[in-house]
UniProtKB/TrEMBL annotation:
Keyword Amino-acid biosynthesis in record: no
Record key words, sorted: Calcium, Metal-binding, Periplasm, Signal, Sugar transport, Transport
Lineage: Bacteria, Pseudomonadati, Spirochaetota, Spirochaetia, Spirochaetales
Location in the cell: Cell envelope
Gene source species: Thiospirochaeta perfilievii
Protein name: D-galactose/methyl-galactoside binding periplasmic protein MglB
């Protein structure tokens, strides 16, 4: 018993010393994660913006890679809490696991900003008064992507290769169950139906990593399949998979209309080179900045939008929504 008490006392002293050491300069410390550094968008846009924007606001940010494992993220949150960070900025691996993270933050009395992956469990955001979400309207990207495709389809009758008036398409889907992947998949195709244009899905494949390799492998397989010559349109839930599909098309010597989401720099280059028809700006820069701004205010006990231009929705979601923007051959230079 005495040994247990001694160990507990040592742990308390160690924690106190470490936590105070983290804040000797008075800086707010944000404990943050990226669900997977393998994700083109998260690692290529949001992570570097977090790393540069937070210091510019006079705060420290510690970012870890959850490697696509919710259990690993749970442990990382425990470590952040033990370190005594002032606020958590968490990119969920599994949107259905938000309650576990919220419970940890609430028990430690640490404010929590969830970003980019929204909780899917009903009511979880109401279980803690110091949790907010920063992200997008999941359906909006699919709607905008669909509207671009409908406009271009109508302007290019030659895309209807067999002249049947039906869009024969293949779709590269992101992570199954991810709100963005599910909404983009539904809304992009729904736009054609809403415009009175019939569609036929030739193939759909999902990838939890949203990867370029997946896009390349699936596109290559589809082009050599029994329906390969029937494909008239390629829809990708993100730019990363679209890049792979473009590589596969080049290897096969074909050029099919293709659309992505994210407006990564490489996508703008593909549009400029005539290898990609459109993408949708997923504004990772402003998602990162809003996450940091809200985190700082939350850590200081202020209204989370104080001194910012961000607005928290009043419909009960406790969310800041960053809008999507269509990017085409007509305006891609604006996003360079």
């Amino acid at each position: 018993m005495k040994k247990s008490l001694l160990l507990a006392l040592v742990a308390m002293i160690t924690f106190s010393t470490f936590a105070n050491g983290q804040k000797e300069d008075g800086k707010i410390v944000i404990g943050a994660n990226i669900y997977s550094f393998a994700d083109n968008f998260m690692n290529g846009v949001i992570k570097p913006e977090l790393e540069t924007y937070a210091p510019s606001k006079g705060v420290e940010i510690q970012i870890v890679d959850s490697e696509g494992q919710q259990a690993k993220l749970n442990d990382q949150v425990d470590v952040f809490i033990t370190k005594g960070v002032d606020v958590l900025a968490i990119n969920l691996v599994d949107p259905a696991a938000a309650q576990a993270i919220i419970n940890k933050a609430r028990a430690a009395k640490i404010p929590l900003i969830l970003f980019n992956k929204e909780a899917t469990e009903p009511g979880v955001m109401d279980s803690y008064d110091k949790v907010w979400y920063v992200g997008t309207d999941s359906a909006e990207a699919g709607i905008i992507q669909g509207q671009m495709m409908v406009k271009d389809w109508k302007a290019n009758p030659s895309w209807d290769k067999n002249g049947d008036g039906v869009v024969q398409y293949v779709l590269l889907k992101g992570e199954p169950g991810h709100p963005d992947a599910e909404a983009r998949t539904v809304e992009s195709v729904k736009a054609f139906r809403d415009a009175g244009i019939e569609v036929e899905q030739l193939a759909l494949e999902a990838d939890p990593n949203w990867s370029t390799v997946h896009g390349n492998d699936k596109m290559a397989a589809w082009l050599t399949s029994s329906f390969g010559s029937d494909i008239e349109l390629v829809i990708a839930n993100n730019d990363g998979m679209a890049f792979g599909a473009i590589t596969a098309q080049k290897a096969a010597g074909v050029r099919l209309p293709i659309y992505g989401v994210d407006a990564l720099a490489q996508a703008l280059t593909h549009i400029a080179d005539g290898e990609m028809d459109g993408t949708v700006l997923n504004d990772g820069v402003n998602q990162a900045r809003a996450t940091v701004d809200l985190a700082i205010n939350a850590a200081m006990g202020k209204n989370v939008t104080e001194g910012t231009n961000w607005k928290v929705q009043t419909n009960g979601t406790k969310a800041v929504r960053v809008p999507y923007v269509a990017v085409t051959k007509d305006n891609y230079m604006d996003f360079k």
